[in-house]
Structure formats: C-alpha cells, structure tokens
Amino acid sequence: MNSRFYSQKYYSFQEAIKKMEHYCAYQERCHKEVTEKLKHMNMIPEAIDQILGHLIQENYLNEERFAKAFARGKFGIKKWGANRIVRELKFRDISAYNIKSALAEIQHEDYLETFDELARKRLDQIKEKNPLKRKKKLADYLLYRGWESHLVYEKANELIK
C-alpha cells in the first residue's frame, strides 16, 4: 500500500484555530492565504468561516494592515512600482479601498527617489552599446517591476541620449 494516502494529518477545530493564530502572528496574512491554508488542512467550509471570523475578531487577521505591510515591504525591499503592488494585491483579493490606503503608505518623494536610484543602478548593469537596445532593456526591466510607463519612458529618455 502507498503510505502517502495515510500521512494526511487531521486537525480538530481548536488545533486549527491555534495553528492559524500562530500562522497569522508570525507574519501579516490576507484572507485568501489563510483560507487556502485551511483548505489544505482539510477543514470544512463551515469551520473555515468560523476560524476566519475568530481570527478577524481577535485581530490576527486584518486586510488593511496586510495590504499596508505588503506595499511597504515590496516597495522598500524589492523596489516594486505601484502597478506591480496593485496587481499582486488584486491577485490576493484585496479590496480597492485597502489597495488605495496601502499605496498611501508610500511617500511620493521616496517613490520618485527609489525609482531614480533603481533606473540608474540598472543602467550601469546593462552592457549593451546600442542606445536603442539599452533604452529597451532599461524600460523592460522597470516595467516588469511595476513602474508606471510614463515615468519609465521619461527616465529612459533622460538617462540615454
């Protein structure tokens, strides 16, 4: 017999609550992540709803707090632009209101300064000699990271004459 069919652990309601409290206390989580985790634990939909309610009530789970922490972290550490942050938050089913308040966490001056530093640093790494190809490589990199196209093309034209 194949043992992988019997290795699935089953959790009681209280065990699942404790596990999810720890999961949410360790790092900010969104509802979607917690729901997926509970589904992987083979919890029934009614238990999932009750556990989510408990986590929200006890303030382990807060989508606005998650969105703000996510935006600050991805901007500060990974240097993502607003488009990428918004796309990732939408993927996690975060509301438009929470996305807007998350983006408000990023100061406009910091945003432009980080964008400028990132563009200059990346340009130094591009070995291409052809100015048009250099511009395209720089723009592709910045667009992939979620920076707005008008900023990207202005910066590419400014840095590569």
TrEMBL record:
Q: Cross-referenced Gene3D superfamilies, in alphabetical order?
A: Winged helix-like DNA-binding domain superfamily/Winged helix DNA-binding domain
Where do the RecX third three-helical domain residues begin and end? 109-154
Q: Which UniProt keywords apply?
A: Cytoplasm
Please give a single GO biological process term from the UniProt record.
regulation of DNA repair
Q: Kindly list any coiled-coil regions of this protein.
A: none
Entry-linked InterPro entries? RecX_HTH_2nd, RecX_HTH_3rd, Regulatory_RecX, WH-like_DNA-bd_sf
Q: Which cellular components does GO assign to this protein?
A: cytoplasm
Q: Which domain of life is it from?
A: Bacteria
- Where does the UniProt annotation locate this protein? Cytoplasm
Locate the RecX second three-helical domain: which residues? 62-103
Q: Hey, which family's this protein in?
A: Belongs to the RecX family.
Question: What PANTHER family does this protein's entry cite?
Answer: REGULATORY PROTEIN RECX FAMILY PROTEIN (PTHR33602:SF1)
Name of protein = Regulatory protein RecX
Its source organism is Allomuricauda ruestringensis (strain DSM 13258 / CIP 107369 / LMG 19739 / B1)
Taxonomy of origin reads:
Bacteria, Pseudomonadati, Bacteroidota, Flavobacteriia, Flavobacteriales
